[in-house]
Structure formats: C-alpha cells, structure tokens
Amino acid sequence: MRLLHAERCWLLDGSSESPLSPHHPVHQNPDEPVSCLSIMINNVRGSKDSFSMDQKHDERMQSHRCQLLDLPWEDVLVTYVFCYLPLRHLVSLQRVSKSFRSLVQVYLDNCRKFDPAQTGPHIPKEAFCAMLRNNQVLHHLCVTNCSDWITDKELLPVIGQNQHLLHVEMRGCVHLSRHALVAVSLSCPRLQHLSLAHCEWVDSLALRSLADHCSDLRSLDVTACRQLKDEAVCYVAGKCPALRSLSVAVNANITDTAVEEVAKKCRELEKLDLTGCLRVRNEAIRTLAEYCPKLQSLKVNHCHNVTESSLGVLRRRNVEIDVEPPLQRALVLLQDVVGFAPFINLQI
Prior knowledge:
By secondary structure, the protein is of the alpha/beta class. The chain contains 14 helices and 9 strands.
C-alpha cells in the first residue's frame, strides 16, 4: 500500500522517473522539495513515536491508579467507610480475597458497636466468637439475637476484655447465668444502659453487685425478672440516683415500697414501666407524681389497683400513660359493641 501511494504521488507530480525506480534518488538536491515517499516514511515514524508515547502514558496511569486496598486501612477505610456498611455486607466482603478478609478483621477488632441482628436472623456461635476474638474497644454490645445458644462460655471472654462498655443488651438470653451479670458489674464500671428483660436467672445478689459497681447507670430493664423483690429494686435506686428509665414490669413481687423508693431517690426519672405489677396502688403513683417532675412516660396496664384518681395528676402534666381515661375507654367500648358512639351526646 505504501508503494502504491508513492507511485500515485509521482504521477501527480509529473516527474519523468518513477520514485520506485532504483535510479531515482530520494533527495536529489537539498533545495528541491521532499518527495511523497519521504513524507510518508516520516509520517510512519511519527505515528510510531506517538503510539510509543501513548503507551508510556497509559503505563504511567496504570502505575498511579489507586485501588481500594491501597488506602490506609485504619485511618480511612475502617473509620470513614466501613462504619456505614451493614455488618452482613462486611461478612460477605470477607469472601472476596485474603486481603479483604484481613481488612474486615481489622474493622471488627476496632468497631465500637456490635449487633449480630445486622447479619440476619441467626448468627452461628463460631462466627460470633471469631468476630469478637480480638476486640477490646466495644461500647455497645447486643446479644439478643444470640439468645438461642449463647452461654457464659461465649459471653464472659467478650465482657472481660471490653471494659469500656456503655450499653449491653442481654434480653431473652435464658442460657446465661448470674455470673454473666456479675462479670458485667466488675468489668464495666462505666455502664449506662443494661437490658435483662426475661432473664429469670437474675437474682437480688447479682443486681446488688451491679448497683455497687455501676453507679452511672441511666437505663435498666428487668422486665419479668421474677426473682427480684422490693429490697433489690430499692437498693438499686439508692446506688444509682441518675436512673432515667426503669422497667420492673411483669413482676408481682413489686409493691408500693419499691415504687416510692425509686420516686424519692431517682429524681431524674423519665420513664417507668410497671405493667403487670398487680400490687402497686394509687399511693405509689401519687408519690411518683410528687417527686419526679421530669417523668414523661408511665406504663400501668394491668395494674388493677391504679385508678384515674392518681393518674389524673400526671395526665394534666402531659405524661404519656398507656391506660386511657375511663370516659375514653367507655367510648371505645361502645364503638366496638354498638358502632354508634360518634352519635352519642356525652353531655347527657
């Protein structure tokens, strides 16, 4: 093709001798114009040089291209990227390569909050132990999603090496023992929130240990912890005056004595759950209204000895109560039974 192009240029120039002839010089005279063949050769050389330069540029770009794993792991990826990803995505990311597995493990070793519920409905025991094997900086630990299998054997090592825990949820973990609560008490002096709902293994001695060592407690849920009696609740109220939320629901052992002690010792109380505390009466609710000006929510459903005579004071302060006023209850009952309540003149 190049030879044909040179021959075509010779025909257009009208030269007497073909540039393809062996007797035709490429440069007859420095003063004469350059032949088409020379220009073509120079263009080919220039294109080769240009291609070489483009190739070198691409190689330089490849060498300077930054990949995800090239970023600082702890200072960038762990702190500003992985903290926004659900735990189930990070678990899946471990399967990509050995490097990603190491990176995810670095995140797990430095994460402040661990909630297995983010991985799905169930997490295997081996996965739980592997994820928290080296973590010593947890602030928030929830093992509610592990309630079917978690025991002291799996939980105690995690509690023992995380002394900065502020929030612990063990709701429904029926296979634990009082040793778990004692471990939390001794290892987590800065604890502020603890949920032990439906943990019937919680006894008075373990709760006393908690009160002795965790005086900064802000929230405590001992719903359905039926071993607890007034004495244990009163002890906690005296040792933890900063309590803002307390649930002693579904416990027939709780009486006015415990409620009144909580009201007098915990003046910052905002939420109190007495659902199903059958022995609580109006006197305790009046004491609560007198000593707890910051109260925002009160649950007294199924407390048959608590009536509107004591609840009315709290309603006028806009305290949220889970039991509706008698008139409202009657209206709802009529509406359900008859269906004509909106047409009834309540002033009659």
